[in-house]
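Let us work through a complete example step by step.
Step 1: write down the sequence.
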Amino acid sequence: MNEVFEFIINSRKAFIQLIDSLTIEALNKIPDGYNNNIIWNFGHIVVSTQTLCYVRTGVLQNADSVKFNDYYKKDTKPVYTVSAEEVAELKAIAMESIEKIKHDYANGAFANITPFTTATYGKQLNSIEEILITTVGHDNVHYGYANALKKFV
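Step 2: predict the structure and record it as tokens.
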């Protein structure tokens, strides 16, 4: 699993480089014909991985501890202008949360999870390993969306 964690970390570093290359205005811009923006796509991967790993598995009872979840969870869209301070916090959480998941994984926190079916892919995930591999794909789908949106901002 070390390779999977390394891939997630490197993908997030690439996403952060994309964010760092843009102004706060560009990050917040919703191009005509779209319903979200670059920073929403980034915030979404930050909260989704935590929710999938801890809440959907039954490790935590609810998503109250997932900061910004209400703004970036599935089926949300941008409703306010994200500040530079929030961008910085999301970047920090993006990396810190993966390190926490990696630590908790090594310490057996996910040994007994409740399997669940993803709304997006309709596939049952039975282990933390399957969830983390799905995270790789999910993160990169949203990184691709952000790269495509960059052309319009």
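Step 3: interpret the result. Strands lie at 116-117, 124-125.
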